[in-house]
Design goal:
Endonuclease III, domain 1; Endonuclease Iii, domain 2; 2 domains
């Protein structure tokens, strides 16, 4: 099986197992997803989803965030860790989006990477989930699972992203990443993988054979 064939098999297996490939962060507009993704660094999506309702109630628009005081945002996001830097990133990103992009979250990688606190993972999530563009969100689950499958042989997020862009059908790449997150939480758990229950056990190079 070539790597492209392996990638295709993984896409189909995960699609059958997780038909609804949804982002686990809760949001109602592009800037809310940007904020939630900034908050998710070194923090679980579940924790972020507990924090954001009150945050978005206080600051319903980009303009509201742009005018916010750092200490007020810090108080609302305190429990997600690294709250001082995250508050600064969110406010500064809102100010830049308001000033440079007319209040609309930009839709290109280069423009998104200009925003404070935004790296390639966040940018790809915005491009895929908001703008429907082919994207590879190289988070820890995706990196671990694609290494186990034998699709990639590196832990470097950028290299994983570039390799998977070669191997995955563009229209499937964003959903494949979401499904890997779901699979990594439910079955392919880092320290105790449930290989016997895995939908990819027949072709995963690292599957524990019974």
């Amino acid at each position: 099986m070539t790597k492209k064939e392996l990638a295709s098999a993984a896409v189909e297996a995960l699609k059958a197992e997780y038909p609804d490939a949804l982002c686990t962060l809760e949001f109602e507009d592009p800037f809310q997803l940007l904020v939630a993704t900034i908050l998710s660094a070194q923090c679980t999506d579940a924790r972020v989803n507990l924090i954001t309702p009150a945050l978005f109630e206080h600051y319903p628009t980009v303009a509201d965030f742009a005018a916010a005081e750092n200490h007020d945002v810090e108080d609302l996001i305190h429990s997600c860790g690294f709250y001082r830097s995250k508050a600064a990133y969110i406010i500064e990103s809102a100010q830049m989006i308001l000033k440079d992009y007319g209040g609309k979250v930009p839709d290109t990688m280069d423009e998104l990477l200009r925003l404070p606190g935004v790296g390639r993972k966040t940018a790809n999530l915005i491009l895929g989930d908001v703008y429907g563009k082919p994207a590879v969100v190289a988070d820890t689950h995706l990196i671990r699972i694609t290494n186990l499958l034998g699709l990639v042989n590196t832990k470097d997020p950028y290299k994983v992203e570039m390799k998977l862009k070669e191997l995955l059908p563009p229209e499937e790449s964003n959903d494949f990443c979401h499904r890997c997150v779901l699979h990594g939480r439910a079955v392919c758990i880092a320290r105790r993988p449930q290989c016997s229950q895995c939908c990819m056990k027949d072709f995963c190079k690292s599957a524990i054979k019974d």
